[in-house]
Design brief:
386 residues; Rossmann fold; globular; 10 strands; eight-stranded mixed beta sheet
Length: 386
């Protein structure tokens, strides 16, 4: 059976949900589902850092009983997906252990959980960025420093892994970055217990603040999965041989939402290359970051998010357009941030102009080659008639 669906997760659960991981081992789509389940707010029904934990189906029943359902993705919702997963044999019987959820509106948004796939194997899932201001601030911070949540990810895996189990480690968005960072910092004896690391459309690492050489020991274990219109996953991107580009049912930057990733049977549906339209955006960001030194990036990020926080916003949906306008106006008037801010549109224009020039030159070359080919064919035809 093969199918393509705009909601890969629910349809896959319908198709494969009756089989436990003892009969059908973890695959790329299972990885996506577990990462999405890590966005479920279990803070009122699952004790933090409990090594015994609870089954997903029991956790979800308690959430329904207490009427405390929250899916902490940027868009929220997805209750049907969680309900189907909890009702399935494949996911509902998974034990959730070592759950942690920390939020400090001035410093950190961090959450992770273990899913026990069988008696010997676990999947450690790091939650990605939610809709909190601090969560997005931490994402921007990676351009000039290691974030507090990255350090927490490192501490978390070192504390919760043991030498009796094998592990998959993964996450979506910021969670994917945490998965790679945490695995790269493990002691060799624990790194040897890692089967695979999944970075699902998560950003890479700024070489100014992280030694990329640390990734070499685990590079062969990393699977990077990105949508065809990839923006987030291209930030500070580094070469990962096992990279898969996925077809999405959404358009543009909305493809970052993993529920839009298409499926073909047990496999995610892949395409050959990134959407050409995203190339300008990714190159613009890269050139823009190269122009600004780490101190300038820090001033930019702190000024932007301090300005939003000053208006009282804690989540993205609380931010008003006027708040953004006021923050940008303040940044333009500051000597520390005006150069970095105003460089962005100039860099985009320069990059777009260069792409347009290349396209015109390529078109002209193709026309020229077409004319040459026609002349050659004409000479051949004339020679045959003689």
């Amino acid at each position: 059976m093969a199918f393509e669906s705009p909601n890969v997760l629910i349809d896959y659960i319908h198709w494969r949900g009756d089989l436990g991981f003892d009969r059908d081992p973890l695959n790329d789509t299972d990885n996506i589902i577990l990462c999405q389940l890590s966005y479920l707010d279990c803070s009122k029904v699952l004790p933090q850092m409990d090594p015994d934990g609870r089954l997903l189906k029991d956790v979800y029943e308690d959430i329904k009983e207490k009427n405390c359902y929250r899916m902490l993705t940027v868009t929220g919702g997805e209750e049907e997906f969680v309900a189907k997963a909890a009702a399935s044999r494949r996911f509902g019987n998974l034990r959730m252990t070592n759950y942690i959820d920390k939020f400090d509106k001035s410093k950190t948004q961090f959450s992770a959980v273990h899913f026990e796939l069988d008696d010997k194997t676990s999947y450690i899932a790091f939650r990605g960025t939610d809709n909190s201001i601090i969560g997005w601030r931490e994402d921007f911070m990676t351009s000039f420093t290691l974030s507090h949540s990255q350090k927490m990810a490192q501490e978390y895996v070192s504390k919760t892994m043991n030498e009796k189990r094998k592990y998959y480690i993964g996450g979506h968005s910021k969670g994917g970055n945490h998965a790679v960072y945490a695995a790269s910092c493990l002691a060799p004896e624990l790194q040897n217990r890692v089967l695979r690391i999944y970075n699902n459309d998560g950003p890479g690492f700024c070489p100014d603040v992280f030694d990329i050489a640390k990734i070499e020991a685990i590079r062969g274990k990393i699977t990077k999965i990105v949508p065809s219109y990839d923006v987030i996953g291209q930030l500070f991107s580094h070469n990962v041989p096992n990279t898969k580009i996925i077809k999405s049912s959404y358009l543009g930057v909305l493809q970052h939402d993993a529920v839009s990733w298409c499926v073909d049977g047990p496999k995610l549906k892949t395409v050959e290359s990134l959407d050409p339209g995203v190339r300008i955006i990714n190159e613009t960001f890269q050139k823009w970051v190269e122009k600004a030194d780490p101190q300038e990036r820090k001033a930019f990020v702190e000024s932007l998010f301090d300005g939003l926080a000053a208006k009282g916003a804690v989540t993205l949906d609380q931010v008003k357009l006027k708040d953004i306008a006021d923050s940008l106006e303040s940044m333009i008037s500051s000597s520390e941030t005006s150069k970095v801010l105003l460089d962005l549109p100039k860099t985009y224009f320069t990059t777009a102009t260069q792409h347009a020039k290349e396209a015109i030159e390529q078109f002209a070359e193709e026309i020229k080659q077409l004319g040459t080919d026609e002349k050659t064919e004409g000479k051949k035809s004339a020679a045959k008639t003689k």
